[in-house]
User: Which sequence fits this backbone?
């Protein structure tokens, strides 16, 4: 009760001072003084209510993360339709909306790159020259890219670059001077988002019919398609 009395006294003194400052300039007619006294008592609680409502409305609203510095894309099954071990530039076919999505990132100053497992090289199915010809075709269709990384090794080689290892994500970040924490990796299988996590980057999975169900349920973030994933990134959800 003592604290309540003290608070009431502080409130009364504050209100009286506030009222006096609004009454003093005049005109000091009875109507004016009454109006000023009443409104002076009402304004502080209304202002407090207004402020509190603003605070409450923002509870639970995620903080705006801004844009990442770099977005890395898996190639096969993400940027282009997947034709396994493709070595023919003619068969490089971008998915719907790929060019527009990449251009939206470029327009906002976000750098873009490719990180691609190409074990067809280790398996003797395609040559490095063919991989590079396909990358050049990709660049013609939806480029330019700030970095292009591919791993020519097989699953048994134990290299540091083949996703889900983080090597290519780290190398791309190092090449461009980007903190991996400011990088997003977008891909269609678990290995893509696992490589992101292992490098300290964010991952967004865009499942295709070949994506395994466990990979979908384990994904940190999901998007329905490539433009949708880019929309999430631009919205700060990465
Ligand atoms: Mg893929
Ligand atoms: Zn490798």
Assistant:
């Amino acid at each position: 009760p003592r604290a309540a009395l003290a608070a009431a006294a502080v409130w009364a003194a504050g209100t009286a001072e506030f009222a006096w400052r609004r009454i003093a300039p005049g005109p000091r007619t009875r109507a004016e003084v009454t109006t000023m006294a009443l409104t002076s008592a009402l304004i502080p609680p209304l202002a407090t209510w207004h402020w509190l409502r603003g605070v409450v409305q923002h509870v639970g609203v995620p903080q705006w993360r801004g844009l990442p510095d770099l977005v890395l894309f898996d190639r096969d099954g993400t940027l282009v339709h997947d034709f396994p071990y493709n070595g023919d530039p003619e068969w490089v076919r971008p998915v719907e909306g790929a060019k527009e999505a990449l251009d939206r990132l470029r327009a906002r100053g976000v750098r873009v790159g490719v990180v691609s497992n190409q074990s067809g090289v280790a398996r003797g199915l395609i040559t490095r020259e063919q991989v590079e010809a396909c990358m050049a075709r990709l660049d013609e269709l939806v480029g330019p890219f700030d970095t292009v990384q591919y791993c020519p090794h097989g699953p048994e080689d134990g290299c540091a670059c083949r996703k889900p290892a983080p090597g290519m994500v780290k190398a791309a970040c190092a090449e461009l001077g980007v903190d991996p924490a400011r990088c997003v990796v977008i891909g269609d299988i678990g290995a893509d988002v696992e490589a992101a996590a292992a490098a300290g980057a964010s991952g967004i999975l865009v499942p295709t019919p070949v994506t395994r169900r466990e990979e979908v349920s384990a994904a940190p973030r999901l998007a329905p398609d490539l433009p949708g994933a880019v929309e999430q990134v631009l919205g700060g959800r990465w």
Summary: The first strand starts at residue 70 and ends at 73. The radius of gyration is 29 Å. The longest helix spans residues 30-57.
